[in-house]
Amino acid sequence: MSGVNLDQLHQSTLGIYENLVEQFNPGLQRLVALGNIYSQAFQALAATSEEYFNALGWMGEQALHTLSSRSLGDVIIQIAESQRKLTNEVEGMFCRFHGEVLREMENNVRLDKDFITGSRRRYEMEVRSQASARRGGHQDGGEYTHFLRESQRDALKEEERRYRFLAEKHCNFSLSIAHLMNKTGGSLQQRAEEWMDHVNETRGSRPRTPSRMEQELMMGQREEKRGQQWMGREEQPLGRMPSRGPSPQPLRSRSGSLGDGLSGGRQMWAVVTCAPSSNPTLLDFTKGDAITVLVPEPRNGWLYGRAENSARQGWFPASYVETLEQTLSPPPSTYVHTLKTNTTTTTTITTITT
Length: 354
Description:
This protein is of the alpha+beta class. It folds into two domains: 3-204, Substrate Binding Domain Of Dnak, Chain:A, Domain 2, CATH 1.20.1270; 212-227 and 250-353, SH3 type barrels (Roll). It is 67% helix and 6% strand. The chain contains seven helices and five strands. It has helices at 3-64, 70-135, 141-204, 212-226, 258-262, 324-328, 333-353, and strands at 266-270, 290-293, 302-307, 313-317, 321-322. Helix 1 (3-64) packs antiparallel against helix 2, helix 1 (3-64) packs parallel to helix 3 and helix 2 runs antiparallel to helix 3 (141-204). Mean pLDDT is 77; it is low at 226-263 and 329-354.
């Protein structure tokens, strides 16, 4: 090989080391800095996302307590919960990105700088030593040429190894993204389509007119929220008058059951039929049934009691029952009119709720 070609081979090897020291490692440092900013930006996004979807879930909870949009509230809550889970999954992926990619790149930059600088220095010293031996006649040109070729091959391997490391780390990150998309994408799309179908169904249906009882329930709920302190702290709550969940246990005294606490209650009679309702905290009964009232006074127009024929307990309008003395006394004409009106209203309630 001519002297010109040997010099080109030598300069090529020096160029590889120079590229690693002056281009690759600084580029890796810049990637680490940008990656840290990337991770911090996502952490801020995740925190804001958590606040947003918590607020969305709260709006869904409010819809559950309306008469018109309970099913929509359930959809909103499911959407919020699904998005929170997705954000948590992505946040976990970014934690792995920080630990498995950024931290290892940062370590490699710190360790590699001294390694590459030392490798280049040893190569240059060996070149000078080989050149001196060649000029002194102690080495032929073939050995020197072989040394230059092997040195270039080693430098190329070091260069390739570093770019392979960079590619592998980001391949793994891309695979993590793909795995997350496969894990959540299909089910999320299916659920989103179901949510949209449910929303569209509510668009086509006419909202049901609330019954008188349900309107009174909603008013009672609002009054109860405003009057929670007025209800007193010594009594355990009877359960909210309407409730989307199962009915809480009725009022119990500190010493035992409800009957123990209120001496069995007072006996009254149903003067109006109270139709069955989907609300589990309400008591239904038929006109003429015996009702044992278990609270001393009405609360927002509602009483809590037990139907003797079924032993069920629950809330009912106070105007639907009377004491035995009231029932036996001759009713005035205005009372007869009121009773007829209540009976008509009850029939309407039964028709609507059915």
